[in-house]
Amino acid sequence: MRHGKYPLLAAFLLPPLALYGYFVLSPYAQSFLIATTNWQGLSSKYDFVGLDNFKRLFKDEYVWNALLNNLWLLVLLPLLTIVLGLFLATMLNVGGRGGRGAVTGVRGSSIYKIIYFAPQMLSVSIVGVLWMEVYNPRGGLLNGALRAVGLDGLAQVWLGDPKYAFWAVLAVMIWANVGFYVVLFGAAMQSVPRDIYEAAALDGASRTTTLVKITVPLLWDTIQVAWVYLAIIALDGFALIHVMTRGGPNFSTDVVGLRLYTEAFGDYKWGYASAIGVVMFFVTLSVTVLSLRLTRRERIEHS
Amino acid sequence: MTAVVTPPREVHKVTPPEEKPGLSGRRLFDGTLNVFSHAFLLLWGLLTAVPLLWVIVSSFKDDNEILNDPWGLPGALRFENFARAWTHAHIGQYFVNTTIVLLGSLTLTMLLGATAAYALARYRFVGSRLVYFVFVGGMMFPVVLAFVPLFKIVGGVGLRDSLPGLMLIYAAYSLPFTVFFLTAFFRTLPDAVAEAAYIDGCGPFRTFFRVMLPMAKPGLISVGIFNFLFHWNQYLLPVVLITSDEKQVLAQGLASLAISEGYRGDYSRLFAGLTLAMLPVLVVYTVFQRQVQAGLTAGQMK
Fold first, then answer.
1. How far apart are CA A38 and CA A35, in angstroms?
2. Which chain A residue lies closest to B299 (C-alpha atoms)?
3. What average pLDDT does range A130-135 have in this prediction?
4. Using the beta-carbon criterion (under 8 Å), do A139 and B66 form an inter-chain contact?
């Protein structure tokens, strides 16, 4: 019945496809091709070198160091963020027990939610600059607090010391992300029937038991989504680290994305940088597929 | 802190559990746990809020106060810090740039995203599934992978270091998620309305703009909020594509300001700039927090 659907299809699909193809698809496709060349950005001449870039990459200790940092982030960021997020969301949504077995949120839970979520609004660069100042060895909030309570000995050059820089950056990532997952988990908890929590409370289950035995299984789908998202953030991390440390000191916060950027726009090794990008793509893809596989469980229906 | 107390939900009347003698130990344990967890909620609240408030308070200080008394209050309200950040540190220029780019990129994203999603959701044609997967597949790639070729391509068409170039590129990189989200949304709209419009003599284009688009408003708002923040806060793409100082966007300009102020020691200007960049988003957020939270979390639940 739809006469003349082709004018509409052409008008509606061709402009977005053209824009998307030109600026998104074609760069992604080209990067796979450039990865097999020895192109040095500034010259227009290059040769195909096959898999040479990849062979070199496997012997490049800077790449391994960066990859290792990404893997540490991959383990720590999702784990810590989800545990913290689940804990805070539980407290906010089902933490209060107004006597009589009633299960509600704690007092002031909406104001907590507003505050926790606020960092999500800020750009990576605001978050990065803000924390650079918090960590500032001289006028920073953190050292200021330590000195104020007499712990002068604990004051550090947080971002300038290879021992602490990685952990300092990890803390910022958790700080910036937790609020989002508190709200996400909170929304999922609201869809769990109250009766289940009330029954658990009446049966005398402690909060910890309720969290582990009831909330986590019922929220498994959401937790899985959270895991995948945080894994992707952990494997990237470029923007925040570019703002805060540029990978330093002594490469202690270097990540693969930053390696690519440095090779590409610092040394103009475009072929080699693209090879790093290709490896990064396959690592991200396999981690995503793997974490979806490993965390698959029977879905629990509760409606 | 004034706490907004949510009224307790109406719950089923439950008879209070009988006191069992063996339970008192647990009750005591729950009591301490209660105090502990409230303290923890408060602690995390402070950990989140204090750095933000600290930046705002510090933006009124002078350099000496900032460096030597991080927890102190400013001796005077130095509004001139903001003026210096706005003009001398070019925060004003960055604001204007970001706004210009956002206006163009958001309009373009919503228009192209909505039309593409509508065509994919409501029409069957050869290759429609393929086109859909080509769009959505873009979400699988890390953006840094595109850096090198994108730099070259954008330079090739003379759009490097240009704000209109940024508009196009933001829109292009927003399409995968926008198309994905809106296609799902358009599929949920009832067919009957479109049929009725057709029978009433409404052409396909009019049906889209006058009937279907207004019906998709909730979905458009969700994905619009998402894209607004994505474009306003964008850092990756401008870092690669914008080189000259006067074309920088806010997120990028702030990061380079932080580095240069670190050398110059002009911290008050940096804090004032940070506050200027932070406050508008936070104010809009506190006003619309319910919609923003719902929009963003709905956007992430695939």
1. 8
2. A184
3. 92
4. yes
Q: Can you tell me the ipTM of this complex? A: 0.85
| Higher-confidence position of A214 and A18 | A18
Q: Provide the shortest C-alpha distance from residue B214 to chain A (in Å).
A: 17
CATH topology of domain B90-265: MetI-like fold (1.10.3720)
Q: Per residue in A86-120, is it b (16+ CB within 10 Å) or e — as a string?
A: bbbbbbbbbbbbeeebbbbbbbbbbbbbbbbbbbb
Query: What is the C-alpha separation between B132 and B270, in angstroms, rounded?
Result: 45
How do the domains of chain B map onto residue ranges?
30-83, 90-265
Query: Of B66, B254, B297, which has the smallest distance from its Cβ to A183's Cβ?
Result: B297
Inter-chain contacts counted by CB atoms under 8 A, chains A and B: 321
Q: Reduced to 3 states, what is the DSSP secondary structure of residue A103?
A: strand
Question: Distance (Å, rounded) from C-alpha A280 to C-alpha B145?
Answer: 8
Whether omega before B214 lies within 30 degrees of 0, making that bond cis, reads no
The minimum CA-CA distance between B245 and chain A, rounded to whole Å, is: 16
| Whether B173 and A23 lie within 8 Å, measured CB to CB | yes
Q: List the single residue in B with minimal CA-CA distance to A132.
A: B258
- Chain B CB contacts of A178 under 8 Å are 44
Cα Rg of chain B, angstroms: 26
Q: Which of B52, B67, B68 sits opposite A118 (nearest CB)?
A: B52
Subunit contact B236:A187, Cβ cutoff 8 A: no
Contact between B251 and A124 using a beta-carbon 8 Å cutoff: yes
Which among A121, A128, A265 is the nearest to B282, CB-wise? Answer: A121
Mutation site for B-interface testing, chosen from A83, A107, A121 by largest number of B Cβ within 10 Å = A121
Give pLDDT tens digits along chain B (302 positions): 334 444 444 444 444 444 444 444 444 455 566 677 788 889 999 999 999 999 998 888 887 787 777 787 887 778 888 888 888 888 889 999 999 999 999 999 999 999 999 999 988 888 889 999 999 988 888 888 998 899 989 988 888 889 999 999 999 999 999 999 999 889 988 888 888 888 888 888 888 888 888 888 888 988 998 899 889 889 989 998 998 888 999 998 888 888 887 667 778 888 888 999 998 888 888 888 887 887 777 655 44
The two structure tokens encoding residue A153: 């000995």
In chain A, the domains with their CATH numbers are 35-294 (1.10.3720.10)
Element (H, E) at A96: strand A96-97
